[in-house]
């Protein structure tokens, strides 16, 4: 009987732990970024950085107010991913045609979402696209990091820092 109670307690604890680990419906997150100019940011992230637009959806004025996202302002969302995979992290771009925010020089000079990191097999193609589009490098181009990979730091059109790491 004692062993039966111990086994039941272990099973209950294990089931409880499994439920806590499986609380989320997806294993990735979606990141929403408000751009001052949606077209310019979409071009930067797709044509220069190399993300893929995998979807888009509208949020109407009524829904935006009910959800508390805006005070009734409708908007469209462009969904970007590194790979067109249902489990991939979503980078959602949207715009309210707000003026471009002040661009800071370093990530420690502001709060909120400040940077993203993207990992490439090789940085050669993205470095060439950055140069072809006159995107300023904030790092030495590229910086070699201790693990043998290269690192490049740039900013998107609204000043979000974008770290690029790869061979």
Q: Could you walk me through the main structural features you see in this protein, from its secondary elements to its overall organization?
A:
It is a single chain. With 167 residues, the protein is of the alpha/beta class. It has 2 domains: 26-98, 2,3-Dihydroxybiphenyl 1,2-Dioxygenase, domain 1, CATH 3.10.180; 113-167, 2,3-Dihydroxybiphenyl 1,2-Dioxygenase, domain 1. Helix content is 28%, strand content 28%. Strands 1-4-3-2 form a 4-stranded mixed β-sheet. Strands 5-8-7-6 form a 4-stranded mixed β-sheet, with no helix packed on it. The radius of gyration is 21 Å and the shape is globular. Residues 1-15 have low confidence and may be disordered.
Topology of this protein?
Layout: H1 2-21, E1 30-35, H2 38-48, E2 52-59, H3 61-66, E3 75-81, E4 90-95, E5 115-119, H4 124-132, E6 143-144, E7 150-155, E8 161-166
Parallel strand pairs: 1-4, 5-8
Antiparallel strand pairs: 2-3, 3-4, 6-7, 7-8
Pfam families: Glyoxalase
GO biological process, one term: L-methylmalonyl-CoA metabolic process
Domain VOC: 27-167
